Amino acid sequence: MSDDLFKPIRLGDYTLPNRIFMAPMTRGRADEQGAPTAMVADYYAQRASAGLIITEATAVNARGDGWPGAPGIYTDHHQNGWGTVAESVHARGGRIFMQIWHMGRTVLPEHIDGRRPIAPSAIAAEGEIPNKAGVPTKFEIPQVMSLEQISREVSSFADAARRAVAAGMDGVEIHAANNFLIDSFLRDGTNRRTDAYGGSVANRCRFLLEIVDAVVAEIEAGRVGVRISPTNAVFGIKDSDPETLFSAVARNLSPRGLAYLHVLEPANDSNSPMATSIPNVAGALRSAYDGVFVLNGGLTRETGAQAIATGRTDAIAYGMMYIANPDLVERFRHDLPLADADPASFYTPGREGLTTYPPALKVLAHAKSG
Known about the structure:
By secondary structure, the protein is of the alpha/beta class. It has a single domain, classed as Aldolase class I (TIM Barrel, Alpha-Beta Barrel). 32% of the residues lie in helices and 14% in strands. The protein is built from 11 helices and 15 strands. It has helices at 38-46, 76-91, 147-166, 181-186, 201-219, 242-253, 282-288, 301-309, 321-324, 328-333, 360-369, and strands at 9-11, 14-16, 20-22, 52-54, 58-59, 96-101, 118-119, 128-130, 136-138, 143-144, 171-175, 224-228, 260-264, 293-296, 315-318. The strands form 4 sheets. It has an 8-stranded parallel beta barrel with strand order 3-4-6-11-12-13-14-15, surrounded by 5 helices. The chain has a two-stranded antiparallel sheet with strand order 1-2. The longest helix is centred in the middle third of the chain and has 20 residues, at 147-166.
């Protein structure tokens, strides 16, 4: 088996010990004010052997904060909680970037004092999301953002990045994927604007690039990554020409000297629920982007190593495997069996299903003693 997964990699301001990254995954364990707790700090510290940890999506302001139990980074309380997380990960020799997001049109009004969610255009997301009581609820038609609101949201991302680094995070990943606010500006299925933020590919890229530039001005380019999902159709989001659009995104990000570009795109023949019939475009983006390229989506140890060895990517972000395998790097390195995650505890409160998965060596020792 190729050892490419275990080779060090230079990522922005850092040299990382391996190319096995932990992908961002919502876990819903923040406290009532939206700050990570000591339990959350333990969860990330257990996974510190990853080349890079990317945290769960973290709201940049109250208007974009609409997932029960998801964290924020817009108050001092949030910042203090994340400081504990960063300290715990660093104590075990790890590196951690915070993924920052605004949920845009998928925020339910009950989370924002009855107001409508905001988006580039008045197009509701498809499907449903659980409300605070756990009842599946359809999405509202969002309020069309004014130019003043666009400017405020750009500033919110910059402020969130500043707070994240002040809390001790090594950097931030700007969440421009999965239908949320930035992604809805990018794609022509959700952006019907006729001003400078809509219409042409260049105009639809403007909001993302303004956010990137504002964040870079706060914390420097080597501490900034961007995540996109060119062919993901979650909540009905779509684009008429994803290869042209996201190749333009990649080309525009290249000269900015970012830490990485993170592309979520499950292979269409994979078992991932996000796999679609839309042709993959990651290969075109790899050619268009001059910098560290990270792939995420249904990859195994073997296919991940092969993707690096053949030049399709520089690193792999693994998601669900990291829930039940806190020591995923060691399991991959020594060909140890992988544990299965329990979906019933993905978002439930408490430690069960968060910090209760033991490392492989402990499992093997228990088996031998039994």
